[in-house]
Design goal:
The complex is a heterodimer of chains A (365) and B (160). Chain A has 365 residues and is α+β, with helices and mostly antiparallel strands. Chain A has one domain: Cytochrome-c3 Hydrogenase, chain B (Orthogonal Bundle). Helix content of chain A is 49%, strand content 13%. In chain A, a hairpin with a 2-residue loop joins strand 4 and strand 5. With 160 residues, chain B is an alpha/beta fold. Chain B contains four helices and six strands. Classes of the chains: A alpha+beta (365), B alpha/beta (160). The interface between A and B is medium-sized, with 32 and 33 residues.
Chain lengths: 365, 160
């Protein structure tokens, strides 16, 4: 009698398409996937525990190491949470600079996504082009804080340095050049038949599926839900800025790619508005020499590049936090991986890992 | 987040669930509930037309040395309001029902709490350690956790 049985295949932790040290156990029936189990923790450093023995000011550089391709957004999220807890008023110029940096970092992070997606699908030219443009953003960050990664530029109460001379011109030049560069990607990737056929109609996530997995960020917007915390909460100066919340329709890999593509252009618009409206004034709020937030707790969320980045901080009135919990968007989004892969082929799973866009530093914390 | 559940709303919840407690003097009072009625409360908060807390955004736990506290941060997109639900747990043997049947998207977060804080969840579909190795001993986020250093490092730290 003929019978078939499923078998297990391990992908990772050192597989090139898993973006770091993610191990995925695929249960296969022939070449189609029955079940996917992500196995994580290879990069666990215990950041939440480490933060308990550091002062609030010392905590900020640790957040750089969470999602290391969008450190500015993490700094922003943590500082925003502490400011909300201690009710610190941030100067307007600092808010403008912060939003500008966060959006530039979002551009850089989405470019990394496009680069890694194209190399995962075998289009290595796309990878090189995306990293070329990301380099321009990193040069801008190098100007403001002297680092290309792990910036530690946004601090509690404001930002540490004012913008250096020549930054505005360089940022403007980058933003002016960006639509042209994006048209290049459009030609290179969007019009490429192999690329389109690898993505369209694959790993479809309906609205119900993304909501039941609690997914956030571009992954949920690609399914047609306009959930963007920049718009929903309107924190910082976002209510004053004009930008569109980009959504997809089908929720397939293609939509997840297009949503991030369009978000790059929207972020560029925000940066332009910040440059134009940049007010004069101080860049740092007055903080006491020993910074002690009042007793209490806060759950504060911001829109990271990968979704809702939340910080739950419990303060006992001392200079060190009693407990910090980080709600990492990549970690929660990973729950959707099974639904994204089940029923498709092994080759599609590579595209699915890529478009969910996990960053292992953030997943494992 | 800007809005928090108003005191009228908290009173409505109190009417439906008489065993909950909250401190009215606080700016954003958390709702304390017992483990037994946790699932019923969350179902009510999710489904009731006046509540509509459709998102369970964050699940975590705090070790207060005398007891553990489970923290659930809910958010209603329709009403634009947040609410925090808490459960106090015994420090010796913390057990709480899993809420994955109400909000399936918290599976990983509950596993993380189980892994790092050592809180047991009943009826969880797949309760295993998630970040640490299966044979790891202890729960690092507990305040009484003592790190066992490898021999060489111990030697260096003590300066022996």
């Amino acid at each position: 009698m003929l019978k078939t049985e499923t078998y297990t295949l391990n992908m990772g932790p050192q597989h090139p398409s898993t973006h770091g040290v993610l191990r995925v156990e695929l249960e296969l029936d022939g070449e189609s996937i029955v079940k996917v189990k992500p196995i994580i923790g290879y990069l666990h450093r215990g950041i939440e525990k480490l933060l308990e023995s550091r002062t609030y000011i010392q905590c900020v550089p640790y957040t750089d190491r969470l999602d290391y391709v969008s450190s500015m957004n993490n700094n922003f999220g943590f500082c925003h949470a502490v400011e909300e807890l201690a009710q610190i008023e941030v100067p307007r110029r600092a808010e403008y600079i912060r939003v500008m940096m966060a959006e530039l970092n979002r551009i850089a992070s989405h470019l990394v996504f496009m680069g890694t997606l194209s190399i995962d699908l075998g289009a290595s030219t796309g990878h090189l082009y995306a990293f070329r443009d990301r380099e321009d953003v990193l040069d801008l960050f190098d100007l403001v804080c002297g680092a290309r990664m792990t910036f530690h530029y946004i601090r509690i109460g404001g930002v540490i340095h004012d913008l250096p001379a020549g930054f505005i011109e360089k940022a403007k030049a980058f933003i002016d050049k960006l639509p042209e560069r994006m048209a290049e990607y459009d030609e290179l990737l969007t019009g490429n038949e192999i690329f389109v056929r690898r993505l369209k109609g694959r790993s479809v996530m309906t609205k119900e599926m993304v909501l039941s997995h609690n997914m956030t960020g571009p992954n949920v917007r690609a399914s047609g839900i306009p959930f963007d915390i920049r718009r929903v909460d309107g924190y910082s100066i976002y209510p004053e800025l004009e930008f569109k919340v980009v959504t997809g329709r089908e929720g397939d890999n293609w939509d997840r790619y297009r949503v991030r593509f369009e978000e790059i252009l929207e972020s560029a618009k925000i940066v332009r508005q910040c440059i134009e409206g940049l007010p004069e004034g101080p860049i740092m709020a007055k903080l006491p020499a020993v910074f002690k937030p009042p007793k209490g707790e806060i759950y504060s969320r911001t829109e990271g590049t990968r979704g809702e980045l939340g910080f739950y901080i419990v303060s006992d009135g001392t200079p060190k936090p009693y407990r910090v919990h980080i709600r990492r968007p990549s970690f929660v989004n990973m729950q959707g991986l099974n639904d994204m892969c089940a029923g498709y082929y092994i080759g599609d799973s590579v595209a699915a890992f890529s478009t969910i866009d996990p960053l292992m530093g953030e997943v494992d914390c | 987040m800007k809005n928090y559940a108003s005191s009228e709303k908290l009173a409505i919840i109190k009417e439906a669930f008489p065993d909950i407690t909250y401190d009215e003097a606080e700016r954003q009072p958390a709702v304390f509930v017992s483990g037994e009625s946790l699932k019923a409360l969350l179902t009510f908060l999710r489904d009731d037309n006046g509540m509509m807390y459709g998102r369970l955004e964050n699940v975590t736990s705090v070790d207060w040395k005398t007891h553990f506290e489970m923290v659930y941060n809910l958010f209603s997109w329709e009403k634009y309001e947040a609410i925090t639900v808490k459960v106090k747990l015994n420090h010796d043997k913390p057990v709480v029902p899993s809420v994955t049947s109400v909000f399936p998207g918290v599976e990983f977060e509950e596993r993380e709490v189980f892994d790092l804080m050592g809180i047991e969840f009943t009826d969880h579909p797949d309760l295993r350690r998630i970040l640490l190795a299966e044979d790891f001993e202890g729960h690092p986020l507990r305040k009484d956790y003592k790190q066992i250093m490898p021999p060489r490092v111990r030697h260096l730290v003590k300066g022996e």
